[in-house]
Amino acid sequence: MARIATALLICGLPLVAAQAVAQSEPPRWDELPPRMQGVLGPIEADWKRMDPDRRRKWVAIAEGYDTMTPAEQQNLLSRMREWAKLSPGEREQARERYREWLSIPAERREALRERWEAYQNLPPDERAKIRAGQSR
Asked: How many percent of the chain have pLDDT more than 90?
């Protein structure tokens, strides 16, 4: 019986430790490794104001940065720069739009994504015509 209890304790300790680490406060900016600071540089000014869950999310994204393709890395950095430029109200609107996007069935999202890509591949004058037609 003591062996079983000891084995359960030994097996459970890593889980408890992992949960404690996951629940712990994410690092302050100056505690981030230099490489991670470089990746997250566009959002440095917001770091102190971010809630712990958002910091953890950004740390996880930065940890996967080196596994991204160069195009994915550029896309991430570009999006972070754009995000950093948004006001708090604009960010909340973006989050709400994202929640709405996720509520759309996957098949419909894929169809919309394909239409958006087709639009993006049009010459600028064709896109301008489409936009002009929508503003009427």
From this structure: 74
